[in-house]
């Protein structure tokens, strides 16, 4: 049903887009002959495009962002009220919403005490890298500057965070990269590097230790990991992994940074993904779900111990964290984030995420009994992946064009789903699902029914 008013001048808008908008990640050639998709309105889990077509969005705004769903008037009102009162002042001064949200956020993260505001996931991660480099200079005689990142993880689009991308094609043609970034192996048991072993989790963590010993522990300041790898394949680390990772960080005095840009604020059914695994991080970064896309805000949270390392030395003008994020001072961000968190609490969305996530996994497993092309189903909360393989024995990935055909077929049925990132060198064969935390049983079933139909159409 077409519920929204379509703009009268839609051809004019489409031509303006075609002529002037440079879209993310897209090759634009097809847009010369096909119309770009322009969304006009969203409500709850549903979107309407400029032609009036309705879609069920299983991706929370394409990149796992709109956790509380579209059309939240109470967030719009909170932002409006804030903007007319005070829209901005640089974060060298405080704001009421900034202070209140920091306190609220910290109340969900035992052990952490400080929040640094910026406005994108990449930027929040860059802050950690800069803090670690400064700590190395000030407290380790310049050593401990290296940053470890994991194969298949992703941390952002700036040159610094690209240097920490475990998806090598992302870096291609953007070099040279800054030095001091070192990769550790992935932890996807389905594609075990060590054959079929009982203690894959521990073994995958030991692989990190091997890199540390090779590089020299006194040169390494940070281990940066996604709690559940997102675009790299929806990888939930295996049992035993996180405990061992924590031990390794303590043993070699390496700070642990958990990138919660995707998992943060409810996605896995806990406030933060790391809270599923009993980890004690030194840094947690978050962005997408913090304000569900109603305002641009990201946060770098850390401990009092780290904060104290930047304590003012009156004799030394270089002692504090000499960083600024202009738009970290936009007060709409924390105002939206406070209301976003209230909604998650008052509507019981963490519980709903666990229940609907279990249903999504069960439905996908059910599909895998009927479709041999599904080699592996995995996920945490409302964040799930189904890896498509040409052969369950060899686990050979299906070709990318067939993955894209499944996605296109779902879209033709009015359901938006995605896949792992194209920069994974032939391993971009995992269907990705991250519906909003408000999803109902009907929504979940509609998503998996569409996938079932698409798999039958594409693979028979
Ligand atoms: N970290 C992770 C895990 C992400 O998935 C992303 C974005 N997809 C980022 C960081 C970068 O966030 P942004 O695009 O807001 O800079």
Automatic annotation (TrEMBL):
Cofactor or coenzyme needed: pyridoxal 5'-phosphate
GO molecular function: taurine-pyruvate aminotransferase activity
Gene3D superfamilies: Aspartate Aminotransferase, domain 1 (3.90.1150.10), Type I PLP-dependent aspartate aminotransferase-like (Major domain) (3.40.640.10)
The enzyme's E.C. designation: 2.6.1.77
UniProt keywords, alphabetically: Aminotransferase, Pyridoxal phosphate, Transferase
PROSITE patterns on file: AA_TRANSFER_CLASS_3 (PS00600)
InterPro entries in the cross-refs: Aminotrans_3, Aminotrans_3_PPA_site, PyrdxlP-dep_Trfase, PyrdxlP-dep_Trfase_major, PyrdxlP-dep_Trfase_small
Family: Belongs to the class-III pyridoxal-phosphate-dependent aminotransferase family.
Name of the protein in its database record: Taurine-pyruvate aminotransferase
Taxon lineage: Bacteria, Pseudomonadati, Pseudomonadota, Alphaproteobacteria, Hyphomicrobiales
């Amino acid at each position: 049903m077409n519920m929204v008013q379509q703009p009268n001048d839609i051809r004019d808008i489409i031509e303006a887009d075609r002529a002037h908008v440079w879209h993310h990640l897209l090759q634009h050639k097809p847009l010369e002959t096909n119309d770009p998709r322009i969304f006009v309105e969203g409500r709850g889990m549903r979107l309407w495009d400029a032609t009036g077509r309705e879609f069920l969005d299983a991706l929370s705004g394409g990149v796992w962002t709109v956790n509380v769903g579209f059309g939240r008037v109470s967030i719009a009102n909170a932002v409006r009220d804030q903007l007319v009162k005070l829209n901005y002042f640089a974060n060298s001064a405080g704001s009421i919403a900034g202070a209140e949200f920091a306190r609220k956020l910290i109340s969900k993260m035992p052990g952490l005490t400080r929040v640094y505001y910026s406005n994108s996931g990449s930027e929040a991660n860059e802050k950690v890298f800069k803090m670690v480099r400064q700590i190395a200079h000030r407290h380790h005689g310049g050593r401990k500057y290296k940053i470890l990142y994991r194969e298949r993880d992703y941390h952002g689009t700036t040159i610094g965070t690209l240097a920490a991308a475990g998806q090598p094609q992302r870096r291609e043609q953007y070099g040279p990269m800054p030095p001091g970034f070192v990769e550790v192996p992935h932890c996807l048991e389905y594609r075990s590097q060590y054959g079929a072993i009982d203690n894959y989790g521990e073994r995958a963590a030991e692989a990190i230790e091997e890199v540390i010993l090779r590089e020299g522990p006194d040169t390494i300041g940070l281990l940066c990991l996604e709690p559940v790898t997102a675009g790299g394949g929806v990888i939930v680390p295996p049992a035993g992994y996180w405990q061992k990772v924590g031990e390794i960080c303590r043993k070699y005095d390496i700070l642990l940074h958990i990138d919660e840009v995707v998992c943060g604020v409810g996605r896995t059914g806990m406030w933060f993904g790391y809270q599923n695994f009993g980890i004690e991080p030194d840094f947690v970064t978050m962005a997408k779900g913090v304000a569900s896309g109603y305002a641009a805000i990201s946060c770098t949270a850390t401990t009092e111990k780290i904060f104290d390392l930047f304590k003012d030395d009156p004799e030394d003008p270089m002692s504090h964290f000499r960083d600024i994020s202009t738009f970290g001072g936009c007060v709409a961000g924390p105002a939206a984030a406070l209301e976003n968190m209230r909604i998650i609490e008052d509507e019981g969305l963490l519980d709903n995420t666990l229940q609907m996530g279990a249903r999504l996994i069960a439905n996908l497993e059910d599909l895998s009994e009927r479709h041999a092309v599904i080699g592996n189903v995995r996920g945490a909360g409302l964040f799930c992946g189904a890896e498509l393989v040409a052969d369950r024995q060899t686990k050979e990935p299906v070709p990318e064009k067939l993955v894209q055909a499944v996605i296109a077929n779902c879209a033709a049925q009015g359901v938006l789903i995605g896949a792992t990132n194209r920069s994974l060198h032939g391993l971009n064969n995992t269907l990705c699902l991250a519906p909003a935390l408000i999803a109902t049983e009907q929504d979940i079933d509609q998503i998996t029914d569409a996938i079932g139909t698409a798999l039958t159409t594409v693979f028979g």
